[in-house]
Structure formats: C-alpha cells, structure tokens
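Open question from group meeting: does this chain pack into something compact, or does most of it stay loose? Before anyone orders reagents, we agreed to write out a predicted structure and look at it together. Recording both the input and the output here so the notebook holds the full record.
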Amino acid sequence: MWSHRFPTARAIATAGVLLLGCAPLSATQVGDALPDWAAHQIEGELPDLEGRVVMIDIWASWCAPCKASFPAYGDLQRELADQGFVIVAVSVDRRARDYERFLQQTPAGFATVRDAKQTLAAELKPPAMPTSFIYGRDGILRSIHEGYRGNSTIAELRADLEPLLAESP
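Structure tokens returned:
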C-alpha cells in the first residue's frame, strides 16, 4: 500500500530529469582527455605521463578484487614499461593509515597515489572497484575496464594496450 502512495527513488529521479530538462550526470567516456592532476589534491608522486600509455586504476583498501589485481598489474607494469606504459593506481581511501596498511600488505610494482578528498574519483566516476581507465599516448581515453576478474581482465587489458603501445610516441 505504501508503494502506491510514495514514489520510488527512480521515479523521483526520472521526474526530476524530465521536469528540469537536464540529463543525469554522466560517467567518463572514451574520447575524454586525461584528467588535469593539478585540479585535484592528489597525495603522492606521479610518474612522467607525457607521451606514455597510461592506465589509471581507481581502487580502495577495502576492495578484495583490488588486492587481487595488484600483483598482476605489477607484472604488467614491469613487462610493458620499456614500451612506454605506466600505471597510476589512485586510492580513494579517506584515511592515510588504511592506504598505507594496504600497500604494506600488498606492495605495488607501479605508482600509487591517494585521492583522499575523492575529487578525481568524482570526475572519473568509476562504475566499480577497481576500474581502470586506459589512455593513449595522446592523453585520450581509449577504454574502461570495470572490476578485476583475474586472467580474463589481464587478457582484455593486453588486447587494448598492444595497439596503443605500437603507436609512435
């Protein structure tokens, strides 16, 4: 009976979009430019990204698939670094101790930074944890990978990375 009297959250959101004539906020899309790092209060040191194929991986210390992804992403970074590939893993942990504890237990073989205020994450709008955003040497987003499913994710990443790494710097 209550459901007939009170609109659902979806109905309210749909009505708001229709009445106000605005679209819901959209997530980052293929074709978007690499984020402006200076616009965010990122903690940590970024590697040189100029002319490189960049994978931004959004993760959190509480995320089990994130923990599983780190060793495989470290292997990928070591294997492809000489071809101009770089991973920047961006933690959305608000507390530094959670971020640091995770990295002590699960060392990364790539650059890690922390987006404590989650402004970069708000810009990219990752649909899942982890989510990887792959940018070409030109700084344009080429693909988005939601989640981590072991070898199948690594195979998908390789398929996307190989043609990008073959492009001239």
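Observations to bring back to the group:
The chain has one domain: 27-166.
The beta strands are 53-59, 85-91, 111-114, 131-135, 141-146.
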